[in-house]
Design a protein that fits this description.
- The protein is α/β, with parallel strands linked by helices.
- It has four domains: 67 residues, no CATH class; 106 residues, no CATH class; 274 residues, no CATH class; 111 residues, no CATH class.
- The chain is 39% helix and 16% strand.
- The chain has 23 helices and 19 strands.
- The protein has a five-stranded mixed sheet with strand order 6-5-4-7-10.
- Strand 1 and strand 2 form a beta hairpin.
- Helix 2 packs antiparallel against helix 3, helix 10 runs parallel beside helix 15 and helix 16 packs across helix 18.
Length: 631
């Protein structure tokens, strides 16, 4: 609508009212600048500026007048708390002073009704940018000390829920709860024009055009469980000392610290390029420096000290999901994969999928509605003595993990590096965000696509290539703009960290698993009647064709699928398309076979030394032909 303003209408009172009614100061400033540009186009910039100054002056006078009116009054309609840093507020019929909050009883001769035995005041409304839900900040005085707490508006609007504030030391019980609710509501509504609206978020990282916690226009209102984690995202020590030491580490040429640093930076680029989360896992022998390398990645953003930013797997899947949602775009860092709780160990593969999907489970609440879904777009950094991929079997999960092997000590003096990082941290994250803000999203995407083209290989997994290209893009930006040391990650080294496609194929790994089980249990395929053991089937050798086929009882094959934790249906479908399983006349992957005088359904699995490469990862439209030859 600004483009339709004329030289007369742009000077109307409605235009200036629109400017000054904006709650978001940043939007207000942008709106003003846009209108100034339009006024300049219309040739009335000087008139517009004069009117803007006049309106600004009037606005300031109104605010000053409101403050001056908040002087000490003998009347009860104003709060009267001593040593309170906030201005006095209207409280209607309530008496609010150092003795507490009370109101006159309508019954003659009856004592005043007590709402609270100590000072308490609502001072700020917090509006969540993701959900639109509001929280309220309360200050209260106990033992001559003022404290503050942020709680959902729904908590102070219900006499049953507000009792929960007693856990924080606020004197509220079921007896006075409804009066405290009424007092807080009266003060908030009577001072609606005075109580500030602060935009907030329960997540950190990219929030619209802001980056939390560095942009102070938005405050964090997240789960109290993560307050310590949030507070660890800060700066400490010296920016210069951190850069000098990290440059020395990078100059050693070791790939492990370079990858972990770049992955930590890359975490905030994932949202900008529209990619999914992924794992970077450092594994190797004990005392190789894996934990210190993880601390290096954490020190980019936060305090890497013990029990601060870095977590572990000794938790639940729900807690990991909530923590990922809170971190949003900052890396989730988990130390030592061997420290896995029983709940996670039983469903480790599902945890990998869930974390890399960037979305939590949908859950209903007790009002039969649906809670806000947890979402995140970040990088997950882990370490352990064995590869993370060793805990999962499905190719889709492996495809989301970049493994970095640590075969020897990474640092000459790991204790020195650890001590330096614990004392100096948090500056690189601020610097990197500032650099990224100066870049356009198109430039970042172009850089990522450039590296994806360099490492893309038909033999490598595409999802891993995308993840690695984001890491390389972050490394390029950090090296050029922050470190200025030319210590880029070598492209070929990065490419070698990607997994070959045939190593990821779940069905191919299932095939070799079944052959291993057949070889390990040869006696169960021996048709010698003198052998008394459970039979799984027989091995049919064809001396003419020089081929062997394992004829496996259908029930025994089901058991092998359960042991190997792979899908019978998916594997047989794949094997039929590869010509590794014989089908009956109707195309079913089982055939009737007479074993020990009993006709039963069996799986006829061909035993080969190697699956021809041209059949690896072929598409679902592959047609079986008669000229396939197996060695």
């Amino acid at each position: 609508m600004i483009s339709k303003l004329t030289k007369d209408s742009i000077l109307d009172e409605e235009v200036f009212d629109e400017i000054f009614k904006q709650e978001d100061e940043i939007y207000k400033a942008r709106l003003t600048l846009t209108l100034l540009d339009r006024a300049k186009e219309l040739g009335v910039k000087k008139k517009f500026e004069d009117l803007l100054k006049a309106y600004t002056k009037v606005q300031k006078q109104m605010i000053e007048k409101e403050k001056n009116n908040r002087t000490l009054s003998m009347l009860n309609q104003w709060t009267n708390f001593s040593d309170c840093e906030y201005d006095r507020m209207k409280c209607l019929n309530w008496v609010a002073d150092d003795d507490g909050i009370r109101i006159s009883n309508t019954n003659p001769g009856s004592p005043d009704i007590i709402a609270c035995y100590h000072p308490i005041l609502p001072i700020e409304r917090m509006k969540n940018l993701e959900t639109g839900e509001e929280q309220i900040k309360l200050i209260y005085k106990r033992n001559n000390k003022w404290s503050e707490v942020i709680v959902p508006k729904t908590m102070v609007a219900s006499s049953t829920k507000i009792v929960g504030l007693s856990a924080l030391g606020i004197s509220v019980t079921s007896e006075n709860a409804k009066f405290l609710v009424r007092y807080l509501s009266d003060v908030e509504n009577a001072n609606d024009d005075y109580i500030n609206i602060q935009y907030s978020s329960s997540k950190i990282g990219w929030i619209r055009d802001y980056f939390l916690p560095y942009d102070k226009d938005i405050v964090f209102d997240g789960d109290m469980r993560f307050r310590q984690l949030y507070e660890s995202i800060s700066v400490g020590g010296s920016r210069t000392e951190w850069y000098e030491h990290v440059k020395k580490v990078r100059a050693t040429g070791r790939i492990e610290p370079k990858i972990m640093l770049a992955a930590s930076f890359a975490s905030i680029l994932i949202k900008l390029v529209g990619a999914l989360p992924f794992f970077v896992d450092l594994w190797g022998e004990t005392e190789g420096g894996k934990t210190v390398t993880l601390m290096l990645g954490a020190s980019v953003w936060a305090n890497p000290g013990e029990s601060r930013y870095i977590g572990d797997f000794k938790t639940t899947d729900v807690a990991l999901e909530a923590k990922s949602d809170m971190l949003n775009n900052l890396p989730l860092i988990l130390d030592d994969t061997s420290k896995v709780s029983a709940k996670i160990r039983d469903n480790f593969e599902g945890i990998v999928y869930d974390l890399c999907s960037g979305k939590g489970k949908s859950r209903s609440n007790k009002e039969l509605g649906v809670n806000r879904e947890n979402r995140w777009q970040n990088c997950i950094l882990t370490n352990g003595e064995r590869p993370l991929a060793g805990y999962v079997s499905q190719g889709g999960a492996i495809n989301r993990i970049i493994e970095v092997e640590c075969s020897e000590k990474i640092f000459d003096d790991p204790q020195l590096t650890a001590d330096t990082l614990k004392k100096n941290y948090g500056y690189a994250g601020i610097d990197f965000v500032n650099v990224v803000k100066e870049m356009s999203i198109d430039d970042i995407k172009s850089l990522q696509k450039h590296y994806q083209g360099l490492i893309q290989d038909d033999d490598k997994m595409q999802k891993q290539s995308i993840s690695m290209s984001i890491i390389l893009a972050a490394d390029k930006i950090a090296t050029d703009q922050l470190f200025h040391d030319g210590q880029y990650i070598d492209i070929e080294t990065a490419k070698n960290l990607l997994t070959e496609k045939e190593m990821v194929s779940e069905n191919e790994r299932a095939y070799w698993f079944v052959l291993d089980k057949i070889a390990m249990n040869g006696i169960k395929f021996d048709d010698n009647p003198d052998i008394k053991t459970e039979m799984w089937g027989i091995i049919d050798n064809d001396p003419v064709e020089k081929t062997s086929t394992a004829i496996i009882y259908s029930a025994a094959f089901d058991d092998l699928c359960k042991i190997g934790r792979f899908s019978r249906k998916a594997f047989l479908s794949w094997a039929v398309k590869k010509g590794l399983v014989e089908t009956d006349s109707r195309g079913y992957p089982t055939k009737a076979k007479k074993l020990d005088g009993i006709v039963t359904k069996c799986v006829f699995l061909k035993i080969v030394d190697e699956i021809p490469k041209e059949f690896v990862n072929c598409n679902d439209n592959f047609e079986i032909t008669d000229d396939i030859v197996f060695d």
